[in-house]
């Protein structure tokens, strides 16, 4: 695909990147805005038991990452990226507006998940189409694009969450729907800045193309198991940790009470603050010849998240049934996010590197499958929240993250061996 690099730019990047950035930002605003309200809506408005609400939350978030596996194939083989994005965004907006009616609750969740299946894999795949393969800006494009995820995720709980808590849950859900429509309108109005789409073609296996070997498949499965364990703990931030923010945290500050949904903004805020210095540190380490192997870096991230949950276990134990200061919850999110940055982006990059050239989309789709299994596991683990003491529950989450760290550390040597073998294969090929 020819690039737009020679044309007029915004901020030194093709104008199409700004269009995709803003579209993605508003889509994330709608998703995280609805997610910030979801567990509270189920327990306070629909009066569902906590265990049921946590399971539904986990099932929904897992389906939101399972449908893109199918949606990506539909976009590539049938609809094309542009039509998939338009249909997906419209479907998600309809689902968000359905959330304004209690009787359509389950239909609304299914509608949003189906729309996300078409939207999620199609929009980021257009980023690479903006650049020639030799464009030096290509490597930074996804870093810029990723910022949109976190801006939307940061603003959504503050705006949708506040509206939902103060004026009613349905208004918050409706605002998330308007956010999705805003993203769709930006995408449609910016079409002139996006490259023309390739005709839909049936995939053809080229003679001599590199395929998966058995060792790579086994390694990816093992990493998937480790990340599934990690996500069973990681995904609790919007589930049981959100419930604890409501009942177990003293949210008084400066004579006011901090809305419980605001704490959901801390994770993306810390991502935006921590990512630039962390990337700069890793670049200096790599330039000095001390780059950390991928599996070892992921293991360190899971360990840090385990320590974050140990902190919550200690705070809940020390409080002995009394509310703890909101400062401890903010500290938890800081440690938690720092660990997240070591494992999740690194894992996605590892899957992309291990993929044969003709199976790149399939391999990255497998990463979404891991998110699906991890989110579903998180929903099952969340059922225990009302059945065990809170210090014990947070300790269990620390054990899950610690087990993921141990497994990833064991996979360090096999991962480096597979990567080295693929590098040799690429040089020979």
Structure description:
The chain has helices spanning 15-45, 50-79, 81-98, 105-125, 138-167, 169-189, 214-234, 240-247, 266-287, 294-319, 326-354, 360-382, 390-410, 412-428; strands at residues 9-10, 13-14, 249-250, 252-253, 256-257, 324-325. It has 429 residues and is mainly alpha-helical. The protein has a two-stranded antiparallel sheet with strand order 1-2. The chain has a two-stranded parallel ribbon with strand order 3-6. Strands 4-5 form a two-stranded antiparallel sheet. The longest helix has 31 residues, at 15-45. The two termini are 23 Å apart.
Number of helices: 14
Instruction: Write down the Rg.
Output: 22 Å
Low-confidence stretches: 1-6
Beginning-to-end CA distance, first to last residue: 23 Å
**Mean pLDDT across all amino acids:** 83
CATH architecture of the largest domain: Up-down Bundle
Strand arrangement within the widest β-sheet reads 1-2
- State the CATH superfamily name of the largest domain: MFS general substrate transporter like domains
What spatial form do the alpha-carbon principal axes imply?
globular
Q: How many beta-strand elements? A: 6
The CATH class assignment of the largest domain is Mainly Alpha
**Helix percentage range:** over 70%
The largest β sheet comes out as:
2 strands, antiparallel
Order of helices and strands: EEHHHHHHHHEEEHHEHHHH
CATH topology of the largest domain: Growth Hormone, Chain: A
Look at the helices and sheets and give the structural class. mainly alpha
How much of the sequence lies in strands comes to under 5%
